[in-house]
Amino acid sequence: MKTNYLKRYIISSYILVWSLIIFVAGPASLIFHAPPVVMWLVRNLIAWSPTYLLLIGWKWFRPGETRMTFVKRCFSGRIKPLMLLGAFGLVFGISVLSLCILSGIEGRPFLSYIDFGTVSLPLSALLAFTSGPTGEELGWRGFMKEEFDGRYGFLKSSICQGLVWCFWHTLLWAVDSDFTDWRAVPYIISNIVVITSLTVFMNLFLERERNLLYSVFLHFGFNIFYVFLDAGIGFFVILTVMYLILTPAAVLVRKRLLKNETNS
Known about the structure:
By secondary structure, this protein is mainly α.
């Protein structure tokens, strides 16, 4: 029987992240009452788990290829500064627009939803960048994308990738969320829709230029906004609607562009 390396990687990544949350993050927070910066470092350690799982266990997941060949391919595409800025600005802008809509509905100033907290802005940006954006992409948009792309077309592959990435966060919904009552339902729905949509947008950029820096910057553009966000469930409902509108539109634009390129 042919080994399903993708299934092996997904199961291993879930086991690893849930173990780290239970046995590292849990005690650090509940027993040792670690300060915010330390807990942020712990979260970064957890966020990097898809990458060091992949690289340390490389021969278990991709025995027919060397690590270096794989990594070089993941960053082989051209780096276009405007496209990098566009990847960041796209999702950052969607979040800003969603908050503007919420601000208008609730009649509150936009900045009243922003909390800069106790960690300095440069340090917050650095920690946010070195968390999921740099820690997860080699595993998700590197290894997992290649495996799913080898099985399915663009849209189905993107949805599968998004759902795996989404439910990888499942335990965090319970232990690292303020929405533990009825609001948990729209919050979870929002996570499913938004994370899957983000994967579609990432793959649109990666289809043009095979360089993970584009998904890193898109991921960072999404994450950095939530470092300072202090909004209720209404924001996530609006955000979900925004992605339900914009993602299908982006897929249709891609289809038309590919059709035009084929006919030209």
